[in-house]
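User:
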Amino acid sequence: MEAPLCMDCLNRIMLCPACQKKFDDGLITALEMQIARILYKLNPNATFKHLVETEEAVIVLSEKKMLGQIIGQGGANLQKLRDFLGKQVKVLGVDDFASLAESLVSPAEVKSINKVFTKNGEKQKVVVRDGEKLRINSVDVGRILEKASGLEVEVVVE
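Assistant: Predicted structure:
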């Protein structure tokens, strides 16, 4: 998985032209750059795909095989990230859309995931059963799914 920043930029303050373009184009955020650099110092093998900040937490989206590298032994890396950010940090594997959706809405349930065609293209519609059990509000669930997948997402709560 490609890290938000190249190896050179993980070790310095100034960004190379390629990473600067990613930042200027809105493909990476200042927070993603900070966290990528912190994680690199804690474990050079730990990479993630994206971060999504909500009111309650920062969600780190990564390949499932990378979760242990990010969390660290006994949760040490995760605790350092929490201390730095001053809020909860959740690390989620994003190997596929459906499993990520299920992880985000748990203990509520995903009733269905459908591809919906609109006049502007297509989007994923995620229908959630038992919405009162959601730990992350449905708007944030949609934002996280969009960031992870690059698709337009609509979350409907029943």
